[in-house]
Structure formats: C-alpha cells, structure tokens
Amino acid sequence: MSTGSVAPRVAPARGVSIDDLLAAISVGYRPDVDETEALLAAPLPALFRVASALRDEGLDRAGRPRVITYSRKVFVPLTTLCRDRCHYCIFVDTPGQLALLRKPAYMSPEQVLAVVRQGQALGCKEALLTLGDRPEERWPEARAWLDEHGFASTIDYVAHVARLITAETGMLVHANPGVMHPDELAALRPVSPSMGMMLETTSRRLYEEPGQVHFGSPDKDPALRLSVIDDAGAAGIPFTTGILVGIGETVRDRAESLVALRDSDDRHGHVQEVIVQNFRAKPRTAMQGAPDADMHEYLATVAVARLVFGSDMRIQVPPNLSDPRELGLLIEAGIDDWGGVSPLTADHVNPERPWPQIDDLAAQTAASGYVLRERLTAHPEYVAAADRWIDPALHAPVRALADATGLAADVIPRGRVAPTPEPGGESAEGGSADAEASSVHVLSSPGGGDPGVKRLAERAASTPLDLDDDDWVRLLRATGGELDDLAAAADDARRYTVGEPVTLVRNRNLTSTGFRRGGRTGAGEFDLDDAVTIAADAADLGATEICIQGSLLPTEDPSAYLDLVRAVKRGAPGIHVHAYRPADVRDLADRGGLGLEGALAAMRDAGVDTVPGTGVKILSERVRALVAPGDLEIDRWVEGITVAHRAGFRSTSVLFYGHVETAEERIAHLRRLREIQAETGGFAEFVPIPLPGGDVALVDGRSPLDEHRAMVAVSRLALSGSISHVQIPWTRVGRETTAVLLRSGGDDLGGTLYDGRVLPDTGIEQGLELPVPAAERLARSLMRPFRLRTTDYRVASRSTGDARV
Rounded CA gap, 771 and 783, in Å? Predict the structure, then answer.
C-alpha cells in the first residue's frame, strides 16, 4: 500500500553512479525502468544495504519494528484442470490424467471442508483456493461437472466454496483463480477479503513466440494480466501479485515488470504485497532441463523490488523455494513477508519443495534479528482500513481473527452463520442457498444410528476427533465396497494434505547389537573401525542417513552408544544419524548413569540427529506381556519418546499388527500417538507394520491385502492433522502390495536400505533393498511424482544415487 505522495523527489542526473542512485532512493526517489535495469546489475552488498534500511524504515512506520510476517494457511487445489499450457507447470492435469489418478475434476465441498477443518484445528486462518484458469473453456469434462452441480462457471464455484469455508470454519479465503473479469472480481469480493494473481512478467516474447514458456496460454497475455490487476484496484480489493525470476525473461523484462506493478499500485493503492518468486525446474515439464533461477540474480531482483516499491510495500518470497541457508540472505535483501506457510498441506504448485516447519522458520528469522508474526490474508493496513478495502459481509469474520494491530490474533477460527443469500433464494454465485445449507448439514452432522462406512469415512477425513471408538472399529473392519470407500476417502485425505509425491530416503541400517569393541569374531559383528568404513561406503553409494538401533550386549560399555555415532560421523561427516530406540536410550541412561535427559544430551553432542520410535508393538501392557515381554514397559516407552521430543529430537512412530491385539487396542494406540503428538509435535511419520509371522485377521476371511488396506486407510484418517506422513513398510508387504497401499492413504516408502559393500550383514533386513530407480518406477506406475527426501522430510539432493534395479 502506498503512503503519501507518489511523485518522485528530485531525480539524480542521468549517468550518475549506482551509489548516487542508491543514495537518492534511500531518501525517497523512485527509479524508472532504465534505472531499475541498471540496479539489477549492481553489487549485492550495496543493494542489500539500502533495501534493508528501507524495509526497516517501513516496519518502524507501520508500528511493528523488525517483524517479518507469514500467513498460516491450508492450500486447497480446487481443480487442477486449466485451459493454459505453461511449460514449467506441474500443477495442471488433463482429464485423462485425472481418470488415471482416480481424481475428481473439482474437489467437492465435502473434500474441501475435510481439509479446511483440519487446518482450522491447527490454528490456520487462511484457506488458499488455487486452481487452473477457466478449465471449462477447454475441457468438456469441466463444463459437464459444473453443469451437473449447478454452477455457471468455475468462478461461480469458487465463490460457493469460499462462502462455505468461512461459514463453516471462520477461516478467511484468499482466492487465486487466475484471470478474472470485473464482474467476477465483484462476485468474489464479499467472500474473499484478499485475492491474488501473479503478473509473472511483462515479456510479450515469452507469450507470443512459439516454444516460449507462455506460448499457447491465453491467460498469460501480459496486457490482460495487468488489466486484471488494475481492475482489482478499481474494485477495492487487497491484491497479491508478483514476478517470476528465471523463466526466460531478460533483465529488462524484470525491470519493466516491477515498474508496471508499481504504476498499478500508484493508481489504486491496492497491491498489498509483491512476490518475487524464483523459478525451480520440475520433472515432467517442458522446462525440466532448464536451470533454476540464478541465486545472485534472484537476490538482486528481491532487493531491487524493495528499491522500486519503497519502504511501505510488503515484499514476499516463498521460503520453501530456497535453501534454508539462503533465507538469511533474502532477509538482507529487504523482504518482510514469507507468504502463506502450511502446517498441514503441501505446496501443490511446487510439490517437490515442502514447506519449512513454522518453528524452524521462526528460528531462521530470529537468527537474522527479526521476529516472525502471523498475519491474515489481508495485510494489517487493509484490515485497519476495512471500511474501504473489505466487503461488509466479511467485517465480522476478519475482526474475529485480527488483533488490535491488524495482525492475526492467537485464536482458533470458529464457524459462524453463513452470509444471507440474495433475494429469491439464490446465492450470489448461483445455485440455491438451501442446497448449500444441505451440503453443510450432511457433512457437519454428528451422525447417529448407522451412517454407513462411506459417510463415516468422510466424517473421519474432516473431523477425526469426532469419531468414537466404535466408529473407528467399524472402519477398521470394513470389507468389499465399504473398504473401497474407506481407502478412497483416505487417499483423498492424503492427496489434499501432503500431496501426490511418493517419497524415499537413501539410507543404510546398522544394528548396534552387533557392536564388539574388541573386534568382530562372527557374522553380524563389527567394531569402531568397521563403523567408520561402513558409513563412508554408505555415503559413497548416495545414502543420506545411517539408522542405528538395537541395545548393546550387557558386556559392552554403554559409552559405545556414543562412540559408535562418532565413528559414523568420522566416516561420513555430513550424514544424518537416526539412532537409538527408547529402550536403547534407557540402557545408556541407566547403565551410563546419565539419566534420560543426560543420555539424550550426550547423544546430541555425539552427533545423533533424530531417533527411531520403534521398540514397541502396541501401546498395551496386555499385548506386550503376550508377544514381546522383553520390550520396554509401555509407560517407560512413552516417557522415553516424550522426553526425546522435548529434547528436540523428532522420531518415527509405529504400530505392529496382525497378532493378538484387538481392533480396539489398535485404535487406542493411534489415539495415544495423537495425544503425544499434540503435546510434543515430535513424530515425523507413522508406520503400520505387519508383525512377522502374525497373520491374524480382524475379519474372518478377509484377505491379507485387505487387512493391510484397512490398517493403512484408518491410520491416515485417524492421524490426519496430527502425523503427516504414513509410510508403507515395503520390506514386510512386498512391492506389489506397496503400490496398492500407496492408493489407500500412504505417501512414503521409507528407505532404500542399502546393504553396502562393507559388512552388509551388520544391518537388520539385510538382503532387502529398494534402489532409487525401482522406487521411481513404482511411483510412475501410480501416475505420481517421486521425490528423494531427507530423514526429516526435506528435499534431498540428487547429486548421487544408484543405478541398480
């Protein structure tokens, strides 16, 4: 939002140095296109110095000194159909691809609310509606869906869903439906307090020249997009826009794009933030071989955006599109907003780039001397001037979520009465208000009687905590068509939260029970020198993780737990050590005289990064006594994992099934994991594992495959909004069954489990490997993207890898 006069102060004479130009900008001069182009080639330190000072000046004037903002959101991909053909886009599907993926043309209102309610429970206040441009104008399937459901257009449906979200959850919608006409902007204004559309670039060459990124995409006409941005200003809509860096545009194009956006904001004052986004190449696109945006050029563009727009504009960068180590540089370049970050859903436009954990983002922001604060979809200046910028229908929902400064209050959104329909019983976007209320009633109904497995599964996807134990047991015992409905609901819950990627970590196991300080004497044994060599070999094969678990023999000194980790780090200094179950930590704590907290601190100092949450079958003493009396007692396991989480270690979580446990005990186990997660937030994933040799079916006559499908699907639904990732134990079920379970709510394959070339028998599950190419083929067979991950679900480098099958 511009403040004060937009007229430039005295301009520096043509031909002056960059230093003189920067000095003029620092006191209010606004560079033109030629000057902006020159600035984009200026040294970064000089740009950073002035850009940072301008940002700090603006934050001081706004009354929030040294505050960088973000919006806590859920990402709702309302439809992935689109009439455009952008060469870098992986978001869009064709109707044929949707059929193969078993994916609807549009998310239903029930599917939308299933995701949004989970975000509401996590404190999210924004629902970002993103979709393709006008799919009904290219795809008959889109037109048929809209006709069948009573909507005149995709924008009509966006308005319907936006109204429903705020009515049911109290969350605010940020609509991002692409190019809109003035009447469509007017229709969305009462249901969406802010909207957005990237300009991307003013380059007509990229739009008009065959082979360029926007050729064949009618909605990427730069003149059309600038017109929409201007229309949004005329309509009084707080608007988010920005540019893409690295899609083939020239430096001159970048300069012209920034100044064009500034000109639009000068006319209306409606541009609430400018996003400077770096291009990242994506597989299965025409630009998959193109280089990512050059980091130096990207940083220069971020800083120059600050210089062009001045101190009062919010300059945003997406934190997931840069390496965490680069976020400090982006702060130096003058940004003051990270945009929307989700604790629940993937970035469906950039699925290969997971969001940072919000706590991590806060820590990285603090490391640069700034405080991270949550904002609403509309920035504080627009919230404060709601009479001008926010439709009256949204004043109450916005006030309910805003604090006195216009930032987000520390509250959980609550649903409220839907806006009154227009006269005649028709809602503003078309379709009857009664029909809308009916869809809400069905989804929100607490049930009663026998709602059927399909409806029960839909409720589970939306509000898992509302189901009682009998409901969950019924789902766990589903068969036939009911099991198909359950698996489909779980797969939708997976799709619309963590997204489509199938992930895998490159790792090797090392069983610490085989450690012998005095040297190996038999199979499965190793000493410290061997551990160094094993780690170096694993790293050479491309592994990013060594998993170490298993209690030492009583004859071994407990200090070996720590020595072993140090040896692995010597062999592979950058490798992630995922080490020691609660039982192993307890052994170190007790025999080493360290106590739990002391043992965990010593592990951290030695180089442990995360811990396995294994060493338990079912959180039931009855089951432990029958099948694993040597396991750690349940209360001690819970204490151990909780203390580890509080000490800063993330962990896995597991459930072993198919033995003497009851359905009720499985559900109690899942509930207990949710309770721990609510307290600590330390579980990164959940793994439902068939117990070796345990094939006791919950339902007589149900096949082993269906037993696994039910367990995976219930796990996904019961843990939705709590533990994000459900890992399929391919070593226990085989690759063919794994593919089926990835369509039942699973999203992760665990690890490659490299045997390695050095003492392969020292790893548990030796002889079972899942090489990267085989995992890629498995994902491809499901029409889903494949992504290598780190242990903590960050993006892993593909600089090394195996070529085995």
Answer: 19
